[in-house]
Amino acid sequence: MSQTKGIFELSFKQQVLALAILPLIIAIFAISLLVTSQSRNLAQNGISTFEQNMLEAKQQELINYINMAQSSISQIYDNATPHDLDAQEQVKRILSSLSYSEDGYFFVYDFEGNNLVHPKQPFRIGQNWIDLTDPDGDRVIENLINVAKEGGGFHPYKWEKPSSSEIADKLSYAIALPKWRWMLGTGLYVDDVVAQTAAANSELKSSINQTFIFIALITLVAVIAVLFTGLLLNLRERAMADTKLKELTRRIIDTQEEERTRIARELHDGISQNLIGVRYVLDLAEHKVKDGASDALQTIERGAMNLGKAIKEVRRISHDLRPGILDDLGLSAALDELTHNFTDHTGIDVELHAVAFKNLIPADAKTAVYRVAQEALTNVERHANATKVKINLTSTPKGLRMLIADNGNGLSDDGDSELQQNSKTGLGVRNMQERMEHFSGSLSVKSSHSGTTLMAKLPRSIYLDQIHEKQS
Q: Could you tell me which residue, 353 or 45, shows the higher pLDDT?
């Protein structure tokens, strides 16, 4: 009888352990799949956007370079006859002298395939290359001429890179000079795009594998903990198991947020910097051609405007994930970029005065102040009907202080301010107050018919140097 009872008790314990472990394993497995899937999709979307934006930027850059070359020769070409040899020689000399980077140059072939201009490979001049093929079998010159005859366009192929003397992927843009039956073209090497995309994919796979291993290790620890609590069969150990499960879920969410931050930094530091570099080239080209034809300047200005839109789009994607400039350059630089983007988007003038805190504020506190400013500007855009906003970020003896004031509608007749209206739909004022209260700070809002003033304060205790002094 006692043996039968012992067997029954052991079986009952096993059932309890199974009921405790199986839901945990299923939940962790489901969370692991969800986190892995979301991380993979998020990263793939970011990489695809990165590659697409890089290629579009290079295409726009090529168009602008061709426009620059056309502007340089337009006066000679427009006044020349179809058989004006002197004008042709002048154009050749101008195009041979133009360059815009270590590997950037212009080339010219006639419609029969004879090379007329090639500053990086002068041995090609005077020779016919209509049958030239790249390592993939592409008839490079013939296809470029055909693209030019069809009104101009892009053509990818492989070509020797002057700076490394190695064969690399290249994207060229060619147009026709029909009066002389010439094809004018230039190209950019896209091996950097291919390499960066491959590196990003490799890093993505590695990161996902590491995340999966990390989750598996946590799962193992959690299962052992649950086994231990099941053996003891008491409420205290069950409570500990619940705590560990909550902690595991929080850590998984933190891992996902870290992955998003890393992707945002890659997008910002990679694409945005490259596009800004191109913008500087366009600005330089604009100054160089201001003394030339008027339509050339207009063309370059349009190109700069389109490039500016691309930069804004990249920054928008990056900021949707996390403002990387907040981590890299600090709160003042992040607010400066935020206000400039806000003015460009809404047309509302923003006057910013911000001191540089350098490394005095913890990262989470900087994020909280940045989000308050971001939410306040969103309120102004949606509800205030303001034309001007002033933001003053200062350090006082009591701590950090941020004042945001607008000249909008303020307090309406029915007693609703623009911020109060926003608090009804979304996080609103309460969200900003909670951010400040989390760091023992405060937020107050004063509104009148002449506008609304928001005051956010954080105590001096948040400063890292103050923390170190207290610890020492």
A: 353
Question: Is 327 buried (19+), middle (13-18) or exposed (0-12) by CB count in 10 A?
Answer: middle
CATH number of 324-471: 3.30.565.10
The two tokens of residue 69 are 């070359």
Residues 172, 415: Cα–Cα separation, whole Å: 62
The mean predicted confidence, pLDDT, of the chain is: 77
What is the C-alpha to C-alpha distance for residues 393 and 229, in angstroms, rounded to an integer?
Answer: 52
- Using a cut of 0.85, tell me whether the model's pTM lies above it: no
222-263 per-position pLDDT tens digit? 667 766 666 666 556 666 767 777 765 765 566 566 556 655
Could you tell me which of 79, 77, 147 has the C-alpha nearest to residue 109?
A: 147
pLDDT in tens, 396-417: 888 899 999 998 887 554 434 4
Q: Where are the domains of the chain?
A: 13-104+190-322, 324-471
Quick one: angle between helices 294-321 and 235-267, nearest 10? 170
**Which residue is listed with tokens 């989470």?**
364
* Six-digit token string for 149: 């005859």
Q: Which two tokens stand for residue 333?
A: 């630089």
Average pLDDT over residues 292-297: 57
Overall average pLDDT of the 214-219 stretch? 74
Q: What is the rounded CA–CA span in Å between residue 298 and residue 292?
A: 11
Looking only at the bridges linking them, the beta strands covering 349-354 and 388-396 are parallel
